C-alpha cells in the first residue's frame, strides 16, 4: 500500500502547478506516513498546498519566514523540536483543540528540506513596490474637515454610518454608539450603550435600527457577538436580541434566501482560529435556524445578489485568515448553496475589503478589492498590498488594474465627481509612515475607462484610518466620505486629548 501511495504522489508531483492538477493532494495524515523522496520545493507544494494556495518564498523576507511564519507552520503540523523548550505553546494561549495537530504530520527530515527551500529563496529584505504614479497633493472636489470635540475621550472608532437625514453614527470600542448632529457643529446629540463593540448598523423605517456588535475586538475565539434590534421608547433606546453567541462577527446582510417571504440573516463571523459564514433562516415566530455556509475563520464580508440571473439570491463573499479568496455561493434552491471560488490568494495576501461595481461600463459587475491586513505573523511592508480591479470576463474575474498601496484596508467606490465614471477612495490602516507623500488615504479619480489619477490630502492629517463610509452628510445630493480613526496609543493609557473620531471629506463636486 505504501509503495502504491508513493507512486500516486510522484504522479501528482508532475510539472504543472498544483492549481492545474486534477488529482487531489494526499491528506497531511497520509503524507506523514509516506517515504517522500521529494525536494524542498516539492514538499512545499504538497504540504503548504494541502491547506491553502502555496505561498512563494519571495512574498516575505528571510527573517519573517525564519522567525515567525515557518515556526508557526511547523507547530500547526504537530512537529515539536528541542528549540520549542521554554517557548509559550499554542495551548498556553488558549488556542482551541484541533487547530494545532497533536501528532506530527511531517517528518523532521522533510521539514528541514521544506524550511531550507524557503530560507534559501526568500529575499533578505521585503521586495519594494513596483513603479507607480506618485499621488498629487490636494483631493479635487472635496474639503477636508477634522471635527474636534470639547471633551477628552479615546479615539477608538469601530463603526461609521450615515442615516437618511445625514446624521452620523459612530461606534466606539468602549461599548458606545454616538449620534452626531452635523448641521449644528458636530455636536453629540445622543448616545447608546451597547453590550460589546458595535461594528455595523442597518436602518429600518422610523427610529429603528439593527446593530451588529463583534464582542472582543482583539483576536479571540469567544462567542459573545450579538445582533440586536433597537427602537425608541420615550427618551431611551431599547435593544432586543436577535442573535447571540456569534464568534467575533464583523459584517452581516439581510435578504430572503429561501423564498418564504421572511428576511434571513447572513453573518460573517471572522473569529480568530475558529469562525464561520452562516445563514440564519427566519421563522414566523421570530426565531432563527442556522446553516453554516463555510466553517472557517476569516469570513469578512458578503454581498447578496442574483449573480447567475436565475431569479434567486446568491452570495459573493470574502474569506481571509490564510485560506483567502473571493467565493460565489450559488443558490440552487431548497436552501442548497454550491461554492465556486472566483479568486484565490496566498495566505499572507491580507485581503481586507471589496465592492462590486461596473468599472468598464460593459453592463457586468466587476470586483474592486483591497489587500493590506498586516496584523498577524508577518508585520512587514508587502509590495503586493494595494488596490485591484478584477474585470468580469467570460473566463472569470481577471485582474486588470493594480495600484501598490501598503496596508490598504478599506474602500468606497462611486461616481463622486459626477462625470459618469467610477472613482475610488481607499484607506490604509498599515501605511508606510516614511513614504512621501504619506498614503493613509488616496482618492483615485476616474479619467475614463480603467484610467485613474491618485490624489492624497495636501495637509498632514496623521491618520490612523480604521474605517471608511460614504453618505450624503450635508444632504446636497452627492456622496461625502467619512474616515473613522483608531489611535493605537489610546488602547493602553488614558488620554487628555480632545476626542477626534472622524475625518470628513465633504464633497463639493456637484
Strand content: 35-45%
Low-confidence stretches: 1-22
How many strand segments? 29
Give me the secondary-structure category: mainly beta
Main sheet record: 5 strands, mixed
| C-alpha termini separation | 73 Å
The helix content is 10-25%
Mean pLDDT: 92
Would you write up a description of this structure?
With 510 residues, the protein is mainly beta. It has five helices and 29 strands. The protein has helices at 2-12, 28-33, 40-51, 62-76, 108-121, and strands at 136-137, 142-145, 157-162, 168-172, 176-181, 187-193, 198-203, 208-213, 225-233, 236-246, 249-255, 264-269, 276-282, 288-294, 299-305, 314-319, 325-331, 337-344, 351-357, 366-371, 386-393, 396-404, 408-414, 423-428, 441-446, 452-456, 465-471, 480-485, 502-507. Helix 3 (40-51) packs across helix 5 and helix 4 packs antiparallel against helix 5 (108-121).
Helices and strands in order:
Blueprint: H1 2-12, H2 28-33, H3 40-51, H4 62-76, H5 108-121, E1 136-137, E2 142-145, E3 157-162, E4 168-172, E5 176-181, E6 187-193, E7 198-203, E8 208-213, E9 225-233, E10 236-246, E11 249-255, E12 264-269, E13 276-282, E14 288-294, E15 299-305, E16 314-319, E17 325-331, E18 337-344, E19 351-357, E20 366-371, E21 386-393, E22 396-404, E23 408-414, E24 423-428, E25 441-446, E26 452-456, E27 465-471, E28 480-485, E29 502-507
Parallel strand pairs: 1-26
Antiparallel strand pairs: 2-29, 3-4, 4-5, 5-6, 7-8, 8-9, 9-10, 11-12, 12-13, 13-14, 15-16, 16-17, 17-18, 19-20, 20-21, 21-22, 23-24, 24-25, 25-26, 27-28, 28-29
Helix pairs in contact: 3-5, 4-5
Amino acid at each position: 500500500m505504501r509503495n502504491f501511495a508513493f507512486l500516486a504522489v510522484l504522479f501528482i508531483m508532475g510539472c504543472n502547478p498544483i492549481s492545474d492538477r486534477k488529482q487531489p493532494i494526499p491528506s497531511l495524515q497520509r503524507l506523514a506516513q509516506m517515504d517522500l523522496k521529494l525536494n524542498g520545493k516539492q514538499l512545499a507544494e504538497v504540504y503548504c498546498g494541502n491547506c491553502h494556495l502555496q505561498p512563494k518564498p519571495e512574498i516575505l523576507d528571510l527573517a519573517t519566514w525564519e522567525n515567525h511564519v515557518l515556526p508557526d507552520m511547523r507547530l500547526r503540523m504537530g512537529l515539536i523540536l528541542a528549540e520549542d523548550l521554554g517557548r509559550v505553546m499554542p495551548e498556553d494561549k488558549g488556542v482551541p483543540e484541533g487547530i494545532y495537530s497533536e501528532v506530527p504530520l511531517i517528518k523532521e527530515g522533510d521539514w528541514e528540506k521544506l524550511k531550507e527551500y524557503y530560507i534559501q529563496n526568500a529575499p533578505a529584505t521585503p521586495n519594494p513596490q513596483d513603479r507607480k504614479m506618485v499621488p498629487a497633493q490636494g483631493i479635487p472636489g472635496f474639503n477636508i474637515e477634522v471635527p474636534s470635540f470639547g471633551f477628552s475621550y479615546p479615539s477608538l472608532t469601530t463603526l461609521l454610518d450615515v442615516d437618511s437625514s445625514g446624521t452620523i453614527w459612530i461606534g466606539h470600542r468602549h461599548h458606545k454608539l454616538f449620534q452626531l448632529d452635523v448641521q449644528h457643529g458636530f455636536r453629540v446629540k445622543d448616545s447608546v450603550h451597547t453590550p460589546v463593540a458595535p461594528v455595523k448598523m442597518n436602518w429600518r423605517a422610523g427610529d429603528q435600527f439593527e446593530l451588529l456588535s463583534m464582542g472582543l475586538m482583539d483576536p479571540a475565539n469567544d462567542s459573545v457577538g450579538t445582533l440586536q434590534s433597537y427602537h425608541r421608547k420615550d427618551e431611551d433606546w431599547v435593544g432586543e436580541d436577535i442573535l447571540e453567541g456569534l464568534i467575533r462577527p464583523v459584517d452581516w446582510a439581510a435578504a430572503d434566501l429561501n423564498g418564504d417571504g421572511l428576511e434571513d440573516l447572513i453573518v460573517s463571523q471572522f473569529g480568530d482560529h475558529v469562525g464561520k459564514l452562516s445563514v440564519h433562516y427566519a421563522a414566523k415566530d421570530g426565531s432563527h435556524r442556522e446553516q453554516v455556509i463555510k466553517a472557517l475563520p476569516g469570513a469578512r464580508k458578503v454581498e447578496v445578489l442574483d449573480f447567475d440571473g436565475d431569479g434567486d439570491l446568491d452570495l459573493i463573499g470574502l474569506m481571509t485568515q490564510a485560506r483567502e479568496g473571493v467565493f460565489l455561493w450559488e443558490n440552487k434552491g431548497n436552501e442548497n448553496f454550491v461554492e465556486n471560488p472566483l479568486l484565490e490568494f496566498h495566505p499572507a495576501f491580507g485581503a481586507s475589503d471589496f465592492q462590486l461595481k461596473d468599472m468598464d461600463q460593459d453592463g457586468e459587475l466587476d470586483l474592486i478589492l483591497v489587500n493590506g491586513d498586516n496584523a498577524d505573523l508577518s508585520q512587514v511592508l508587502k509590495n503586493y498590498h494595494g488596490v485591484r480591479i478584477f474585470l468580469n470576463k467570460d473566463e472569470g474575474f481577471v485582474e486588470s488594474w493594480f495600484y501598490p498601496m501598503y496596508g490598504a484596508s478599506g474602500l468606497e467606490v462611486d461616481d463622486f465627481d459626477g462625470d459618469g465614471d467610477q472613482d475610488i477612495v481607499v484607506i490604509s490602516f498599515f501605511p508606510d509612515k516614511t513614504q512621501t507623500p504619506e498614503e493613509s488615504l488616496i482618492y483615485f479619480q476616474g479619467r475614463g475607462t480603467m484610467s485613474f489619477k491618485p490624489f492624497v490630502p495636501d495637509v498632514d492629517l496623521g491618520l490612523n484610518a480604521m474605517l471608511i463610509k460614504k453618505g450624503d452628510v450635508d444632504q446636497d445630493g452627492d456622496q461625502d466620505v467619512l474616515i473613522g480613526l483608531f489611535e493605537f496609543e489610546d488602547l493602553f493609557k488614558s488620554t487628555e486629548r480632545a476626542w477626534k473620531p472622524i475625518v470628513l471629506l465633504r464633497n463639493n463636486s456637484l
